[in-house]
Design a protein that fits this description.
This protein has helices at about 1-20, 40-50, 70-75, 85-90, 95-105, 120-135, 195-215, 235-250, 280-295, 310-315, 345-360, 390-400; strands at about 25-30, 40, 55, 145-150, 160-165, 175-180, 225-230, 250-260, 270-275, 295-300, 320, 325, 380, 385-390. By secondary structure, it is α/β, with parallel strands linked by helices. Strands 4-5-7-6-8-11 form a six-stranded mixed sheet, sandwiched between helices. Strands 2-1-3 form a three-stranded antiparallel sheet. Strands 10-9-12 form a three-stranded mixed sheet, with helices on one face. A hairpin with a 3-residue loop joins strand 13 (about 380) and strand 14 (about 385-390). Helix 4 runs antiparallel to helix 11 (about 345-360), helix 7 crosses helix 11 (about 345-360) and helix 9 crosses helix 11. The longest helix has 20 residues, at about 120-135.
């Protein structure tokens, strides 16, 4: 693909000029809740990765800040029952499996998405471009935006999209859908790692939830953020950075749901709901969403310490929940984690789950629009030129003014 090659060359030049921020210093690593921590060098950290030992990199992280007021608001935001079936079902109808497949094919075309490689940098920026382009192509009547989150110590950025809440009293309360965008090869951290399931699957589910919400013109009362984390595979570094900043910045996170390894299927139509290092009440909301909106059943699973990015938010005192595929993908962190291991039908079920969670938690605005207005009907001219009537009218008026 010529465009990707050009992107990698451009980012590669910047990568070479800037040089990766130094990570040659030792890292402060924790291996479990009771671990006081260890200073490990780069080779020792790589050894943990190769042995698939979970760890949490707390280097330079301040202690979590208690925020009881935020927790109280979070519990108030969690619904006891499902109330917005009309909004959710309409948003579900906007899921586009073809564009899901197209993006996942593109995302896995990168040799790897390692957090300190040029292709890792390029892959994150290509996701940013996809989200930004979609916002500008949409006829969304609410306020949507996207930005990168720069980390100190490595090059790959995290990406954060945002749909602003329309209710002034609730807009400061934030619902987060998260997924990590990086990949790794356990044998060689900078080797080939297409990461179709880990975690191209979670990345594209969060992306499609965002796109379907905009397509359905869903305007929430609470703010919704869609976060794609850098450097999950090396100790949850990206999500830990963001969760810590939100904790110390007094951001009112009322619920965080994480999507990691969600595409592998062996015929078992179930979804694992993590029961450790998550919030019991928010996990119950997740189960209610599943029962109401998807065909897969829930099963409990304990994933262990620092299993994936929800842990960063749990560590910082925010309520979290996490659905995963029922049967673990045996090809994780190898060269065989490619498109053929991802089940498209299962991706759709997880996308439905994400839409139900986002809408029930953020709640529709009082003037929420569930269908595009007639003035925003898309007009296709030939097969290549597409305009909305609203844009066409704006262009006409602009030209008329100049004459």
């Amino acid at each position: 693909m010529k465009i990707q090659a050009i992107l990698i060359v451009i980012y590669g030049v910047l990568y070479a000029v800037a040089a990766p921020p130094s990570e040659t210093e030792n890292r402060f690593i924790k291996l479990n809740d009771n671990d006081a921590g260890h200073w490990l060098d780069e080779e020792e950290v790589d050894n943990l990765i190769q042995r698939n030992i979970r760890f949490f990199d707390v280097t330079n992280l301040p202690e979590p800040k208690a925020n009881n007021a935020s927790i109280a608001k979070a519990y108030d935001a969690m619904p006891d029952s499902m109330k917005f079936q009309t909004n959710v079902k309409y948003a579900i109808s906007r899921i586009d499996e073809d564009r899901v497949g197209k993006f996942l094919t593109h995302f896995t075309s990168f040799f790897n998405r390692y957090y300190n490689s040029d292709t890792g940098v390029a892959s994150a920026l290509s996701l940013l471009d996809e989200v930004n382009d979609f916002i500008h192509r949409s006829n969304y009547s609410g306020n949507a935006s996207v930005r990168t989150y720069k980390h100190q110590g490595w090059l790959q950025k995290s990406v954060i999209a945002r749909i602003e809440g329309a209710n002034p009293e609730l807009a400061t309360e934030v619902v987060i859908l998260g997924a990590h965008l990086d990949s790794k090869n356990s044998e060689d951290p900078q080797g080939e790692a297409r990461g179709a399931n880990d975690n191209g699957s979670g990345t594209v589910v969060v992306l499609e939830v965002f796109r379907a919400l905009l397509d359905s013109n869903f305007v929430p009362q609470r703010t919704i953020e869609f976060q794609w984390y850098s450097a999950e595979e090396v100790g949850l570094k990206g999500s830990a950075d963001i969760a810590s900043a939100y904790s110390h910045g007094d951001v009112n996170v009322v619920g965080m749901i994480n999507f990691d390894i969600v595409g592998y299927n062996t015929g078992v139509e179930k979804i694992s709901v993590l029961s450790d290092y998550t919030n019991d009440k928010l996990s119950e909301v997740l189960r209610k969403v599943m029962k109401e909106y998807i065909s897969y059943e829930a099963k409990d699973l304990k994933c262990g310490y620092a299993c994936t990015d929800h842990y960063s938010f749990t560590y910082n005192g925010f309520p979290t929940c996490a659905p995963l595929e029922a049967v673990p993908n045996p090809y994780m962190h190898t060269t065989q984690d490619i498109l053929t291991v991802v089940n498209r039908t299962q991706l759709t079920e997880f996308t439905k789950l994400g839409l139900g969670f986002a809408i029930e938690m953020a709640t529709p605005g009082t003037n929420n629009i569930t269908k595009p207005s007639n003035s925003d009907v898309t007009v296709a001219i030939g097969s290549k030129f597409v305009l909305s009537t609203g844009i066409f009218l704006s262009l006409y008026l602009s030209i008329k003014t100049m004459l």
